[in-house]
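Homework help board

Subject: predicted structure for assignment chain

Our instructor gave us this sequence and asked us to write out the predicted structure in token form, then describe one feature. I got the tokens but I'm not sure how to describe them. Can anyone check?
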Amino acid sequence: MCQQLYMEPSTKDDDFGEIEPKELRFVFEPEKQISCTVNLINKSDRYMAFKVKATTPKTYCVRPNVGIIQPHSTCQVHVKRQAENVVPSSDVIAKERFLFQRAFVYKVTPINDLSPIFRSIEGGKYINETKFKVALNFTKEINLETEEEDLKVRESQDIPKTDSDIDKLALSLKKAKKTISELMEQKINHLISKPRFFTRNISSEKVDMLEPLIQQ
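My token output:
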């Protein structure tokens, strides 16, 4: 059976629904495969066949690249771009295009016979064609730079900047020093309160060395 017989009569004035978004936008990440999703919306009461073509098919993987959308339904097309080490130049991106072809078909149309439908057009039948550009964003890299800047700000906040901050730090150190001195004094007094232990373990010379500390 001729593939063109699967196509319903149509004109350019027919409602072929919508394609969203209006461009293929990717978020670039080095050495990672990036992707985006396109929604093909069929608002009619008819079955709609579609086919997706890329100007650089080796760069992109489109799934599904051909199919049938039921009446009042939406088909999601996932487009993946191969991983790259560096950001593609603007000249390269400017040359990349996608062509979305759509045509009304009969319900009994086999999936395997869809591709030949878009190769030629017979009288009284119409194929809707819409071209889309490619765009690259760098949102994630910008977020990383922002996070790094926030971290630097938080770290800098921990460093005393004013005389008041320095005074507070000095007071804390003075209190800590006083606490250590009091603990040492308590330890020495505890040893002195035990003559036998003190006499056996501490010579008179060492006692003379400890007396100035006790008197402070």
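Reply (TA_rk): Your tokens look well-formed. For the description, you could write something like this. The CA atoms of residues 17 and 42 lie 5 Å apart. That's the kind of observation they're looking for.
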